[in-house]
UniProtKB/TrEMBL annotation:
Record-linked PROSITE patterns: ZF_RING_2 (PS50089)
GO biological process annotation, one example: double-strand break repair via homologous recombination
Annotated keywords: Chromosome, DNA damage, DNA recombination, DNA repair, Metal-binding, Nucleus, Telomere, Transferase, Ubl conjugation pathway, Zinc, Zinc-finger
GO MF, one annotated term: ubiquitin protein ligase activity
RING-type domain residues: 188-229
Highest taxon of source: Eukaryota
Taxonomic source organism: Oceanodroma tethys
Coiled coil: none
UniProt entry tagged with the keyword DNA repair: yes
Gene3D superfamilies membership: 3.90.1150.220, Winged helix-like DNA-binding domain superfamily/Winged helix DNA-binding domain (1.10.10.10), Zinc/RING finger domain, C3HC4 (zinc finger) (3.30.40.10)
Protein name: Non-structural maintenance of chromosomes element 1 homolog
Amino acid sequence: NIAMAAQMTDAHRRFLQVLMSHGIMEGSEARKLHRRCCEIHKVYYAHDKLDDFISTVNSHLQPLFMQIRKGMSEGDGRAHYALVNLAETEITKMASDYTENELELFRKTMDLIILSENGFASSTDILNLADQLKTKKMKKKEAEQVLKVFVEDKWLSERNGEYTLHTRCIIEMEQYILSNYQDVARKCNICHSLAIQSQVCESCGIGMHLPCVRKYFRAQTEPRCPQCNDFWSCDVP
């Protein structure tokens, strides 16, 4: 086997352990960690080789059906790295951490977010679902606590009483969402990743992440859709 993956070193193992304990890591943090792991274990370090370093880890994770994946924050467009379990859908993975009716609340929250216009669901709408759960009705106070835990565990993000999917959730659940919400889930026309918070072309219906919209239209005085060339009617953020 000539294409044998580059050797896993203690630097790679440490990187993986730290990432596992965080679940997700912002790009700049991952770059710092890469450097620190190489320095501690006296492994060759090159600042522009993080993706190669991660590829080495991934080739050794393959038999375990795990992978470090790169994604971006839909708010500011920053790169993030998350450890993803490929063997099971993330919802089944979550089952070991939450009760059945907590998971039902999460699924229903996900429905609201993905089916919404802007990729957000209000706490009012989510809490109204609490007493309609099939598994076991939940009091609003209890549901508020559960939402708090989902935010702490980086499955949801909250801003001024509005909830959206956390970057970690999007990276880990991309395949699950694309296959379970086939008619509504869309990929960004620019970066081709799943787009939850997006702007949509009124003429042809393609979606774009807000950071991708900003980048794409930066130099254009009259923004036009990259797909159909019609005038882009949304306000460029």
